[in-house]
Every structure is written in C-alpha cells, then in structure tokens.
Amino acid sequence: MSDQPTTSSFEQVSEIETDEPTLIEGLPGHGLVAAIAVDQITDQLELDHYGNITSDDFPPVATFENGLVRDLVRVYAGSDPDVMTLKSDLALPPASFESLSQCVLTKLADRFDRAIFLAGAPAQSEEQLGDVIGVATTEDLRADLTDAGIEIADDPGVVGGITGALVRQCYQADIPAVLLIVRSHPFLPDPSAARAVIENALEPLVDFDVDTTALEEQADEIQQRMQQVAEQYQQVAEEQQPQQQTPATGMFQ
C-alpha cells in the first residue's frame, strides 16, 4: 500500500451565479438528521447540481436515481436565495474525512460566505428529542445564535465524524461556521429531529423559510428510505473492514 496521502477533488459541472451563499452541510451522520434536512432544503429550493467531489477513499460503489448513475458526493447551489448544499448518498468512511474536508476548504470555501453544519446526537430521554444546542467558530456567530434564541452549548464536548473534520477545518482557516446539534432517536433515522433543527435553529439563522410539512406527513416513508441507506452503508463498511479500522467517535457525530 502506498504511503502517499489520497486527495479529494472537486469538479464543477454548471455555472451558477451566487452572491456569498451560505453552505449547509447535509452529510449522513447520527440519525441521518443532516441528510434528511438538507434533502428537504435542496428539493424545496430547487437548487441546481453545481459540482461533484470524488476521492479514492470513498466506498467503491455506484449510486443512481431516476435511472441515471451519479457521483456519491455532490454540491448543489442556487441564487434565490443564495444557498449551497453538500450531500452524500451514503455515510462516508473515516479514511475520507481529512481529504474531503480539505477539498471543501481549498476548492469551495472562497465560494460561500459562511457554513452551517448539522449533527444529530443520541437523546437520553424522550423529552430530549428535538432539543437543539449551538456552537460557533467566532464570538460574533455565537452572539447570532443567542439573538436567534438558540441555546448555546455551555458544557465541553466533542463532535466527531466528517462534520467534526469540516468544523475543525473552518475554525482553523477562520471561515465563519455554526454547528447545530439536535437530540435525535438513538437508533433510527429521525425526520422529526430534522424538522426540529430546521424550524428552531436553521430558519432563525437564514433569510428564507423551509416548509417542513413533508417531514411530518411523510415521516414513516422517509425513515424507511433512510434506514435502507444506513443498511446499505453498513454492508459496504463490513466489506471494507479488513482494509480499515474505524476510530473512536466523539460525543456528537
């Protein structure tokens, strides 16, 4: 095996004129909260396919929709409102975290104004479901969270996974970023938690509204579809297990 580090690359596939858009990350993590929320945002705002991120560290699979193969990790964008989203059809293996986050930093950071990251965390009780806390990379953004009525995470904590890698890259590069952590179902994909983080935390930070009716009306269907995604990734992860070991994760992922 080569000791040379692998890299991720970005390929732009369309021209979309945006004015300092907000990047909203929707890569699969705990409860698939970010993926569910950003799927809803991307579809509702009718964002266009802006580009793809590829890496040798991504799972050796082909994903498809409507009869067409597509890249695993994709970027969407639109100008009314100015939004950019980052999506993946599968949860990504730990080996890809560093190169993907560096790719976002070097190839996309100059195209967006700030980033909003979403993360699910296992709820310890039914009463906690849907609770949201916020973390910021700057004091100004922390003030924005407070002004928006979002509870600040007072206790020390750790965020792992690809979201943690992306937040770290933004912090180290002085890119304004907010992390919204929502308590979600400990074991299942959670459309209700996705709706909660959109309504109670994301909307107060952006200048557009998101209709979350579908997340409520189609919760069972969304949960079943996302569960299939999780099971597909689990199968891929098990097949790759001899080649890689999964490091310990943090408090939130």
TrEMBL record:
The keyword Cell inner membrane does not apply. Residues 233-253 are annotated as: Disordered. Keywords: Proteasome. This is Proteasome assembly chaperone family protein. Gene3D superfamilies: PAC-like subunit. Pfam families: PAC2 (PF09754). PANTHER family: 3-ISOPROPYLMALATE DEHYDRATASE, 3-ISOPROPYLMALATE DEHYDRATASE-RELATED. InterPro entries: Proteasome_assmbl_chaperone_2, PSMG2_sf. The keyword Lyase does not apply. Residues 233-245 have a biased composition (Low complexity). GO terms for cellular component: proteasome complex.
